[in-house]
Amino acid sequence: MKKRIKSLIASIPKTFLGLYSRLLIILMLLFCLPANSYGQQLQQPTSGEENFLFYTVIAMVFFVMLLVLIVAIYTLLILKRIIKNEKGEAEEVEETESGWDILTAKLTDAVPVEEEETVLLSHDYDGIHELDNHLPPWWKGLFYITIAFAVVYIAIYHVFETAPLQIQEYQNELLAAAEQEEERKTGDEDLINEDNVTFTDEVAVIEQGKSLYEVNCVACHRKDGGGLPGLGPNLTDEFWIHGGGVKNIYKTIQNGVPGTSMISWKTQMSPEDMRAIACYAITLFGTNPPNAREPQGEKYIPEEDTPATE
């Protein structure tokens, strides 16, 4: 029986190490290949965050496998030592102690099996005895590192406040983004926004607006601007829910209307595109398409200093 156990234990390292070597090689190959070369990502470039997440997962799996390998090797060494001790070969093991055995002994601070009586406690639980072993030095080292890290973290973020917390970082980023947006607006006098947008009947602008309208707006407002029930209002009459005129129309296109099918287009269109659509929508006034929706909102009266079509 002991010979069978010994032969089984002797065969474990070869099988175990062979399997692990193959898995480690596969992981290293995956780690070397770019993350955007898998599956459907071949067609769409992977962002930096997705690449970082992919490599982080691979690295964690690789690290865990190394830890499991170390624990397995250490367990096998202990089993071998137990078998040798049973045969009375403990002295020979001590004489031929390898560097690996010395390293594991220092890392674990484990008491040899033949010296367990020195750490044996008086407790007896149904024949099971308890040993007063020390905590492994590597574990205590990590524990001390976490304590030191916590002290430094509290001192930096909460006591001396030399570094901002997450909420403050978020607020700082918002302020920086607002300043950049303000600089961008003031630095470009020709930038179109809801305050300075104006109507134009230039053919190029109207044609651009028509093309964009037929692609993005006909699903709710129809191609002729008559509107669809439950979706988009009629754009051809003089009644407007959110105000007529190029400025109001531009504002509605830019910001959308929450709770309705009118989404915000500012992330999908440039200011020039939104202005072109607004100008084209104004040219639909008075076309009176058949089966148009009923008037909605309030009648819009253009200001005296603006074109009548606006």
Automatic annotation (TrEMBL):
Pfam families: Cytochrome_CBB3, FixP_N. The chain crosses the membrane at residues 53-79, 141-160. Keywords: Heme, Iron, Membrane, Metal-binding, Transmembrane, Transmembrane helix. It comes from the Bacteria. InterPro entries: CcoP_N, CcoP_N_sf, Cyt_c-like_dom, Cyt_c-like_dom_sf, Cytochrome_c_Oxidase_Subunit. Residues 288-310 are annotated as: Disordered. Residues 204-285 form the Cytochrome c domain. The keyword Membrane applies. PANTHER family: CBB3-TYPE CYTOCHROME C OXIDASE SUBUNIT FIXP (PTHR33751). This is Cbb3-type cytochrome c oxidase N-terminal domain-containing protein.
